[in-house]
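Contributing new records

If you add data, match the layout below exactly. Sequence lines come first and carry their own label; structure lines follow with theirs. Keep one chain per record. Anything else will be rejected by the validation script.
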Amino acid sequence: MQKLLVTGVDGVAGSNLALALATRFEVVGLYERHTVSFEGCRTSHCELADEAKLADRIREESPAAIIHCGCWSKGTWDLRPSEPSTASMPDETRIVARMAESAAAAKSWLAVLSTDAVFSGPRLFHEEDAATLDSGMASSAIGMERTALARGAMVVRTHPYGWSPVEHECGFAERVWRSLTDNVPCRCVHEHHATPILATDLAAFLARSWEMRLTGLYHIAGAERTSPARFASELAAAFGLRGVACEPSDPLAGTVGASRPESSLSTRKVRRELKLPMPLLREGLDRFADQAEKGFRARVRGAPRGGSVSGRAA
């Protein structure tokens, strides 16, 4: 079994990718802010901003593949305009530069996750070469992407959702689920469309990308453009919570999903390369619900295989 190094396993994208790919790879997960441990993966702390330690770690592990889930590995619904902080932006570009150079030295394939928040309409289903936002946050993400691309990496713009390994840092999908299971109406906007994809579904596309050794910029996202309000309604149905209302909100009120008007991604390029269909919204949400029922959510939280998590507070 070949070795896969996944960074950011204390976040939603990294943890879900690590667990999903542990059946195909010997997974080594690196965390920075929160100590996490997953069955079937080896996890440890690493300060990625310490370039020497990062380079040493990649050299020691010598993985066949690396998936970097840094500060830009969140979708637009989970990135507020004020984050990541301005202070962290130059570090991320420098981290990716050193990671790409170290990956090349170790002959490791590198995929770097980036955000759909580089877009803000008016185009629907943005292609990889579509015009991006001219803002501090988007410009910093684009700078990071260019650094990775210049060094031969694969850059994946996406909008992942899944279960969080850290209870107080849940993503949009889990926050909606928490509200609905608490019988609290979920206030979500009907604007601000995106193309969310379940992080464990994203894992299959990344594994196939590694098999084909893809490099360059690709969009990997769900097949359907949806608003936060529709996403919440479909999530409620997937969990059998049809009686819970998802109240519409003022699109300017600063509620969930209100940060940008349009960040949907066209996946034509990656579909052509990988010959795989993108998952429909309800397909992903049904799997998301299944993960809560059959123990995957518990495993993300560090519980043993087969363990269950009962109740909203777990």
